[in-house]
Write a structure and sequence with these properties.
The protein is an alpha/beta fold. It contains seven helices and seven strands. The longest helix is centred in the last third of the chain and has 25 residues, at 163-187. The relative contact order is 0.16.
């Protein structure tokens, strides 16, 4: 049985889609939701799906192995970042080497790196006059958005579209592909 930990900082729309996708799966289970914000709506997503949650603080996240110890007790085998805004600490990357993936709302390597998340990405895409954008699923390493790319999906955009409209198109791609790619990776 693969047990997934989903990290999220915000509303949790991708987390909700992943939970829904694996709800009755015989070999894959969402076992815990981790957030760095104690009022993040994703915690309600966890609660309404009877999934335990952990709220982490920055100091303990970066200076202790507490989270890894919790994951060992929960038998976590895979970590999914779904709108999580902190850089993952080295000790967690080492404990879960090639078992941590992230979804990013652009076609990396374009529009990635520190500070490039959410609407910041979509505003930058529009400002650059891009004709296409999309989403990237990649392995997590020690740097923001630089891990090996696993999957990309794209959509055409035009300059008449607002950053909010672009965000909706990208989110549709994330919701469609992210759970399926996770399942494929865990079956390999």
């Amino acid at each position: 049985m693969h047990k997934i930990a989903i990290f999220a900082s915000g509303t949790g729309s991708n987390a909700a889609k992943i939970i829904e996708h694996f709800k009755d799966h015989p070999a894959i289970q969402v076992a815990v939701i981790v957030s760095n914000k104690n009022k993040a709506p994703v915690l309600q997503v966890a609660s309404s799906n009877n999934i335990p949650s952990i709220v982490i603080d920055k100091e303990r996240f970066y200076t202790t192995s507490t989270l890894i110890e919790s994951f060992e007790k929960l038998e976590i085998t895979f970590i999914v970042l779904a709108g999580f805004l902190w850089l993952i600490p080295q000790r967690l990357i080492e404990a879960y080497r090639n078992k941590i993936i992230n979804v990013h709302p652009s076609l990396l390597p374009k529009f990635g790196g520190k500070g490039m998340y959410g609407m910041n990405v979509h505003r930058a895409v529009k400002a650059a006059g891009e004709t296409k954008t999309g989403m990237t699923i990649h392995y997590v390493n020690e740097h923001y958005d630089e891990g090996k790319i696993i999957f990309q999906a794209q959509t055409l955009i035009d300059q008449a579209q607002s950053p909010e409209e672009i965000a909706r198109k990208v989110q549709e791609l994330e919701h469609e592909h992210f759970p399926v790619v996770i399942e494929r990776l865990l079956k390999e």
